[in-house]
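hi! just following up on the protien thing from before. the input was this:
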Amino acid sequence: MKIEEESKFKILEGDAYKRLNDIPSGTVDCIFTSPDPIRVYAEFLSISLILGLACRRILKPTGSMWVHMEDAFNERGSLMRWPAKFSMEMISEYDWILRGERIWHAPVRDQNFYNEGRVIDNNRLILDHSYCFHFTNARYGYYNSFDDFGGQPCSIFTEKQRTLGPDEYATAFSMELVKQCLLMSCPQGGKVMDPFMGSGTTGAVALAMKDREYTFIGIEKDERKVFATTERLKKW
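and the predicted 3d structure came back as:
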C-alpha cells in the first residue's frame, strides 16, 4: 500500500485486524499505539491478537512497536493487572522480545467507581501511572538511536498530560512521549503506524517532526473519528 506523494499520511477505516491485511508485510518501521483501556477478557484477547500477530507481520525486521497501556479495576474493586498480562502474552504466545518499558508518571483516566454521583472507591491509592512497552523482533538488529538524548534514557517518563490548543479534537495524551519513542526507534524517512488511531496523536507527532520526513498510516473503526482526525492531520 502506497502513500500518495502529495500526502504524508493515509487513514484506513474499519476493524484493525481486517485493515492490517491491506498493509504489505515488512513495510512499517515503527508502531506506536495506545488501545482503549481493557475492561473485559474478550477485549484483552482481541488487542493481543491484533498487536501480537497482525502487527508483527507488517513490521520490518529492524522495526519497533511501542504499546501504551493503562490498568483498570473490575467490579469487585480488584486491580486487573492488564498491562502485566498483556506483556507476558506478547512474549509467551507471540514470541515478541520485550526490550523495555517506560512508566509514564502522570494522572490517567479516573478509575474511581461511582454510584449515583457518589465516589465509592476512594479507599485506595490513586492510580497515577501507565505503561509503555517496547517490543522488537529480536534482541539485536533493530533500529536504535540515542543521539537526541545525550545517553540512554531512563524508564521513568514524568511529563504531565497536555492538550493541544489549536486542535478541536485535542488529546490528553503526551506528544512528548510519542516523540521520544520515535526518535529512539524510527529512522529518517520511516513509516509510522497506529492500528488504534483514535484522535491521531501518533500521526500528529510523526508529521510535526518535519526534519525526520516520516509518513503515517492510521487505522480507526469510528467513522466520526476518521473524519475529525483527517482534518487534524492536515494541519500538521
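The CA atoms of residues 172 and 221 lie 20 Å apart.
The first helix runs from residue 16 to 19.
cheers
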